[in-house]
Amino acid sequence: MAAKNSLPYRIFRFYYDGFRQMTLGRTLWAIILIKLFIIFAILKVFFFPNFLKEHAEEGHEADYVATQILK
Hints:
The chain is mostly helical and about 70 residues long. It contains 4 helices and no strands. The longest helix has 24 residues.
């Protein structure tokens, strides 16, 4: 019975009950997650290529970065 009165359990139940009773919030969270997926997965592929892979030899990436910083 002491476990149900502990602070971590009460915090968990607070958020669990809150998310369970959401209606509009679920739609908003779905939109947020879709936008994050688009930003980090799709846009990264097209707009942020692996610069080090193109300019530095494999295994010598740290040397390349050090020389570029010191220039």
